Amino acid sequence: MDETLRRKILEISDILDKAAPPHIAFLEATDPFKLLISVILSAQTTDRQVNIVAQELFSTYPDPHALAKASIDDVKAIIKSTGYYNAKAKNIIGCAAALEARYEGVVPDTMEDLTTLPGVGRKTANCILGGIYGRPAIIVDTHFGRVVRRLGLVSSDDPTKIEHRIAALLPPERHYRFSMTVNWFGRIRCHAKAPECGTCMLAHVCPWEGKTTAVS
Ligand code: SF4
Questions:
Q1: Which pLDDT value is given to residue 212?
Q2: What are the structural domain ranges in the chain?
Q3: How confident is the model at residue 29, as a pLDDT?
Q4: Are the beta carbons of 152 and 207 closer than 8 angstroms?
Q5: Rounded distance, CA 117 to CA 110, Å?
Q6: What pLDDT score does 211 carry?
Q7: Most buried among 41, 75, 98, 121, by the most CB within 10 A?
Q8: Would the CB of 202 count as within 6 Å of ligand 1?
Q9: Which of 142, 184, 190 best tests ligand 1's pocket when mutated (most atoms within 8 Å of CB)?
Q10: Active-site residue, from 113, 141, 193, 211
Q11: Would you say residue 213 has pLDDT above 70?
């Protein structure tokens, strides 16, 4: 069974790799600190909104030292439009303070260290490990989970189980690119509502009973 799934996920990985843009980035931040804070802010909102807010946030607080000393009310005012701003303000200031206190202002490069930071779970840590440090990383967000379930690669709803299952099926060197291409595909084609199955390049390997159009 796993061999069949391994062949299937490799085929899907190849198809998406060819179809997707060579470089995929949803958040504009590229330095480790700014990307980390942007990913924390991206919970329950759009990347577009985060990119807008990030401009003011990082022009005021460009590094962990500055953000660690920020007034929480000032930070809340800047990030309010991203939602859950009370918790997010507390987390990003706490995260900056922890980077200062424990890592000399440098974003760590292990899952163990990253997930000790306020507001950082496995998804956020994997964004940093894959996007900044070039490590194998399966990033399970809402798009990724939906697409791999529909494709019959996993049955679980649990992000950590999905991450481990996909990681076990795919060679590590494909992990990060697969994460990004599946995410891209979930946004442009395999939408939560009204997926575009009629023009889908994966329809022939998709067993989802909710497929909207039969494809030969
Ligand atoms: Fe998603 Fe439809 Fe393609 Fe299946 S056929 S992967 S549900 S867009």
A1: 80
A2: 2-23+138-205, 32-131
A3: 87
A4: yes
A5: 12
A6: 86
A7: 41
A8: yes
A9: 190
A10: 141
A11: no
